[in-house]
Amino acid sequence: MLLEASSSAIHIHAPTTTGVLQNAPRTPTNVTIHPVALFSILDHYLRRTEKQERVLGTLLGTRNDSEVEVRSSFAVLHSETSEQVAVDMDYHRTMYDLHHKVNPKEVIVGWYSTGANLNTLSALIQNFYSQETAPHQAIHVALNTGVDGSEPAGVKAYFSSPVGVFPRPENCVFVPVPVQLRFHDAERSGLDLLKTTSTCPNASSSQPIADLEIIEEAIKSVSDMLDRVLTYVRSVLSGQTAVILRWDDLEKGGFNSSLQDMLMISYLANLVRAQSEVSSRLALVTTM
């Protein structure tokens, strides 16, 4: 599930030259966030003081060569003015040590903040978290709640790139990265429950849905999808809807996969044919 338009992202890959740069970590090209991390950020925002314009916190998760997966997060105490920002580093490291004991596989991948403003203070915080995630790049997730109304609610992810011949911590460019929402099958029931309560006038949460009700809703959803497919097939057979086959969709993997399957079937058929011919000739030799 995409959380923002991927067209605004800039993909920057590490150079493939030999030497030291070849072993340098690659720049992340995709960020996935689990609902638990987003709910933790929203809960932190709701518990903020009246003087705080935004809240900050640490992102935990896993990473590979090109993707960062944010699985959880925790709040970090900080004070911020128009001229300076102070982050409680001892609290940050204590909380990380506690989380690391529970989930040893999760490491620090970056930090989050609410709002959409990126300024010099954000660059300083980014520099601090870059030291925590070294040699990998730290990502920054900006969650806009949409309360002020200046921009719609949404989630954006960035990584930083230094600027200047002699770069300073407060001078960097935040480059957007595509961000997606990923959830497990066990989390879907909770998300569906929150979705149903969002349409209620009182906005109060109802009781958890029973297993039979979940199965019933799933069967209804599958039945609705089958009805839509059946309606489309009937419209195609009646000539009301034209079928358009796009070659670029085939090139994305479906055509290549079918071609490989066909070649494998042809190879196995020829192998069986050769095996049968060899067996028949050997049987003929033994009878003579």
Strand-pairing-aware structural class:
alpha/beta
Low-confidence stretches: 5-21
Overall number of strands: 10
Strand content: 15-25%
- What value does the average pLDDT take? 78
Tally of alpha and pi helices: 6
What is the strand arrangement across the widest sheet?
Answer: 9-8-7-6-2-3-1-10
**Computed CA radius of gyration, to the nearest angstrom:** 27 Å
Structure characterization notes:
The chain has 288 residues and is of the alpha/beta class. Helices cover 42% and strands 20% of the residues. It contains six helices and ten strands; from the N terminus they run βαββββαβαββββααα. It has an eight-stranded mixed sheet. β2 (56-63) and β3 form a beta hairpin. The longest helix has 41 residues, at 247-287. It is extended. The relative contact order is 0.11.
List the helices and strands and how they pair.
Layout: E1 30-33, H1 35-46, E2 56-63, E3 67-75, E4 78-80, E5 85-87, H2 89-102, E6 107-114, H3 120-133, E7 139-144, E8 154-162, E9 172-177, E10 179-181, H4 185-198, H5 211-237, H6 247-287
Parallel strand pairs: 1-3, 1-10, 6-7
Antiparallel strand pairs: 2-3, 2-6, 4-5, 7-8, 8-9
In short:
17% of the residues are buried. This protein is of the alpha/beta class and 288 residues long.
Key attributes of the depicted protein:
288 residues, alpha/beta, 8-stranded mixed beta sheet, 10 strands, 20% strand
